[in-house]
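INFO batch 0412 | record 1 of 1 | parsing
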Amino acid sequence: MLALGAFAVLPFLYRFISVLYSQIRLLVSLNSENQKYFATPSTHWIPWMKKHVLYSPLFRVRHNREFQISEAVNVGTLPTRFQTFFLLGYVASNVIFCTYMIDFSDHAAMLSELTNRSGVMATVNMIPLIMMAGRNNPFIGLLGISFDSFNLIHRWLGRIVVLEALTHVISYTVNKVGKVGWGPVKAGITSSPFIMPGFVAICAFTFILLHSPSAIRHAFYETFLLLHILAAAVAIAGVWYHLAAKPDLGHWLFFLKNAIIPWGIDRAMRLARILYRNVGRKMTKATVEALPGDATRVTIRMTRPWTLKPGQHLYLYMPTVALWTSHPFTITWSEDEQYIKLDDEKLPMNRQDIVHQTDRTMSLIIRRRTGFTNALFKKAYDSPNKTFTTTVLAEGPYGKIDTLGSYGTVVLVAGGVGITHPVPYIRELVEGYANGTVATRRVTLIWVIQTPEHLEWIRPWMTKILAMEKRRDVLKILLFVTRPKSTKEIHSPSSTVQMFPGRPNFNTLLNMEIECKMGSMVVTVCGGGSLSDDVRQAVRAKQDVANIDFIEEAFSW
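INFO prediction complete | emitting tokens
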């Protein structure tokens, strides 16, 4: 825990300084049109840190692009260089805690000490392991680190806990067999109130390790999740009874309790949030519409209104499609939808008899893949008018909040359904520019799509954005169509909305933006792994010539 806390100090300080700096930048830049002070790096070491540590992939380019064995099977992604340093440091600290100052000359004493230390470390590490798996992880907002990064740490902490538990069992077994033979060990597994729960726990831990590789997780995720939770519960129960069986080990239950408490709090908060958000005089309803390009638009009418920020996501439960599972989706749009409610007992005779009511709606765009998303699209496509309405439960909002209003220049890159992430930011920035509440003077959206029919996914919302006050002064949209059926499909409606065939060259596009930029610059990306890696590489290459921050929106499981 001390090691993990020590490793968390650096991200916390970085987060604190970044938030403070962005607030100062916003206040200074609000009434400034050139924002020259923030346009270039003030020191040489900050661009170096961004280029070689914070934004750098582990090796040269590849980070978010998955390693695929086939179209259906992939074996995950590589961590960034900073994530790798963090993980290596934490692994090294655990190795040191387990082995430091052990007398390796005395074989039996060495095994006994290793048994004790590895068991303690496995128990202690269960606190951050379980905390980082929760949706209500307080460190997401505190440190400004995404759930995706915490999920990565959770997976590696899980491997560390299992390996330490295996070390605990193996060293104990070798030492015991060396002293009294296999007979007492076998008897303890089947009858000892101390050994038997520990054996059950290590079996559950081993099962978790074997069924958690990326290829299995991605191929059978919903089954994996259920088995993962059940196995974790069995492992925790086994460790509890294992420690409780001996009075001299009872004080270690303190750490196990503190591992269980965050899990219980997270589940209680999730249940309370679901009930409060969705249960009332009416249940939450959703209208699902099949769209061109294998996607669905889900419009949710909430029982109670939400307070939303751009970039947040929710978990959607839809029992008529998937009985018990929930899936995360970015909230693309929210607005008040007015309708007229008439009195059922009498005809309206004047305006006072007509009651205007407002529903707060949230909209999602869901691309058809496998599992739930495939079943959802099929159900909508086979319904009358390719639309159906059903009862749903929406849990949220969740997610790290990135405030972009302090940047003079904002470049938003999206690939395919990744457009769900930048749309609410565009709305907020254009509105803020018109009201004079943001420092942003230039917003560029780069959207890479396969065919023009994908434009239908966000057409209603983009039409509203294009009609906003002063939109032409601040917003430029560049559309890249990678698989057009003919050149006739490629046409630019105006100078601020342009369409091009093929894939974008991000180095060229960033050079163009840097030439015209105002103030500090941020580049965000949400899309496929290959797209994200290309944008990351282009941003890193420009660190020496401009003050550019990079934000990647990704979700792995």
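INFO post-check: The longest strand covers residues 355-367.
INFO record closed
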